Amino acid sequence: MSEAKTAPIPPTGITPQPGIAQRLLRLKPYFWRQRSVWMLAIGATLVAALTEPLIPALFQPLLDNGFAENSLPLWSIPLVVIGLFGLRGLAHFVAQYALARVTNDGMEKLRSDLFAKLVRADLSLFNRQSASALSNTVVYEVQIGASQLVSALIGLTRDGFTLLALIGYLMWLNWQLTLVVFTVAPGLSWIMKVLSRRLYGLTKESQKATDDLAYVVEENVLAHRMVRLHGAQAQQMGRFNALGQRLRRLALKSTVASAAMTPLTQIMAAIALSLVLVIALVQSREAGSGTTVGSFVAFITAMLMLIAPIKRLADVANPITRGLAALERGLALMHDAPEESQGQHQTQRSNGALEWQNVSVQFNPDAAPALANIHLSVSPGETVALVGTSGAGKTTLIQLLPRFLNPTSGLVLLDGVPLPLWQLDSLRSQLAMVSQDVVMFNDSLAANVSLGHTPDRDKVQQCLEAANLWSHVQTLPQGMDTDLGHNANQLSGGQRQRLAIARALYKDAPILILDEATSALDNESERLVQDALQKLMQGRTTLIVAHRLSTIEHADRVIVMERGHIVEQGAPAELLARGGAYARLHHRGEWAPELQA
Ligand SMILES: Nc1ncnc2c1ncn2[C@@H]1O[C@H](COP(=O)(O)OP(=O)(O)OP(=O)(O)O)[C@@H](O)[C@H]1O
Ligand SMILES: [Mg+2]
């Protein structure tokens, strides 16, 4: 199930990747905005790095002058040592803070852009990616990516500088010995390259596995009642555990790859150290080489101090790879989610004339079309009921109006203007919609009614009154300020429908689209909903997918659909008399049966 819904991620490890530098460059707009903060971070890092060789450098005068010749003033020792560590501490603090600034500023901007993309993206995005995969990208991956990448880059600078400073000092002390140390460099770089490539592949696979895991959780939260009713717990646990084990295996493989780095670099260091020791001892035995105990200790200390930055540099591939992979997921979302296309036409209030010209919709190339060559016009103020068996294409027909769907061929027009030429905001402001499944936000009742606008309390109250919901709202402890909870779970089915009607009333759009719920309500609730609907329909062009006879009978015209075609249309009484498709549906009792009495 999850396979079908998540976006395919290309097979990992072998896909050609542009160079690291090029990939980092793509992140520049987010993480390179505050150049001064970067400079501060790098400057502080540089200071911290430069203090590193000062530590071994202190040993030399200490050993050669302090102990051997006794010429070092005692007061100078605490002064230099405390001063040195004070400077180091300050530099580390500033670097850390600047680092956090860069990370969090960049992350905030990237997140905000991603979310802006999400709310404006073409609707096909939501068919390709699951909710959990999208929230993973926007919330989790961006955070992991930004913090790992930025701290790795600063680490790279710090350790790079430290390394350079130490190497410079070593060269100055004894350049021949230093060159010996370098003989291990090619081996080191080869190890790093191989292991980091493997890590990249594993990271991509783990992202996919994490998405799948989150998807199972998402489904089980949404369908928690069904899981219990059908005793599907064991089956769902099976799905979850299989994915959990896959993630565990991938994490262990990543650890093997990154943990192998440390012992391998240490072996390289040991090789270099033994070479240096041997050569230094040989050199010191030669007369007049100038090697003092102090300079030898300083050399060995500085050389051993190389290990820590080298080790970190070897490991830096891991967070850089992980961070880049994570942020690139964000960039891919940005790239793969084009905005909805739109035109320029806009108007305050349309007159509500609708027309479908030879419209076909085909979801799958090998399936029958959901709509086939539909011709239909609806005049301003008309109430049209769409009826037909399940799957006939009724919902598809109305989803075309707000452009939640685009026709495969043909044109839909509003006020004689083809929908693609309309500005989307203007087009959608002409439509109020009460759909088959009511979706509410976890916010106050008033905010749900005035969705998209700050609630005008009087208007909210009027709409709730007209929707026959006001008397219920008055019984709530905080009235219209009551929080509705997750998807308005605290309301009954009929109350939710009336809330959706209140929302449509508040919008006061010239065109009303109703996709009646198929689930039947009890008679009292049904009467309240029907009464609210009648008020809502007044003075608007109304298109209603009708499952209730009472609704159909109020319509000016009934359109009967079958398998994507309009098979019959006319006034309800006229169609009944004609004895065609409508009459057959009527006699079969297609609509909510208890309401036909
Ligand atoms: N996103 C989609 N992808 C593929 N096929 C789809 C999609 N949406 C709808 N269909 C198919 O298109 C056809 C028409 O569906 P539609 O939802 O318009 O039916 P309907 O008349 O509203 O039915 P109901 O009365 O049950 O709501 C159906 O055969 C359905 O399987
Ligand atoms: Mg439908």
Explain how this protein is built.
There is one protein chain. The protein is of the alpha/beta class. It has two domains: 19-336, ABC transporter transmembrane region fold; 354-592, Rossmann fold (3-Layer(aba) Sandwich). The protein is built from 23 helices and ten strands. It has helices at residues 2-5, 20-25, 28-31, 35-69, 76-120, 125-128, 131-182, 185-222, 224-229, 233-259, 261-285, 293-315, 317-336, 394-399, 424-429, 445-449, 457-466, 470-475, 493-507, 523-537, 549-554, 572-578, 581-588, and strands spanning 354-361, 371-378, 383-388, 409-414, 417-418, 431-434, 511-515, 541-545, 557-562, 565-570. α4 runs parallel beside α7 (131-182). It is elongated, with a radius of gyration of 35 Å. It starts with a helix and ends in a 9-residue tail after the last helix. Adenosine-5'-triphosphate is lined by residues 363-364, 370, 388, 390-396. Adenosine-5'-triphosphate binds next to α14.
The total of beta strands comes to 10
How are strands sequenced across the largest beta sheet?
A: 6-7-8-3-9-10
Structure classification: alpha/beta
- What fraction, in percent, of the residue positions are helical? 55-70%
Choose one word for the global shape.
elongated
Low-pLDDT segments, ≥5 res: 1-16, 593-597
Helix segment count?
23
Radius of gyration: 35 Å
Q: Would you identify the CATH H-level superfamily of the largest domain? A: ABC transporter type 1, transmembrane domain
Ligand set: adenosine-5'-triphosphate, magnesium ion
Main sheet characteristics: 6 strands, mixed
Q: If classified by CATH, what would the architecture of the largest domain be?
A: Up-down Bundle
N-end to C-end Cα span: 43 Å
The fraction of residues in strands falls at 5-15%
By CATH, the topology of the largest domain is ABC transporter transmembrane region fold
- Total domain modules: 2
Question: How would you state the average pLDDT, rounded?
Answer: 83
CATH class of the largest domain: Mainly Alpha
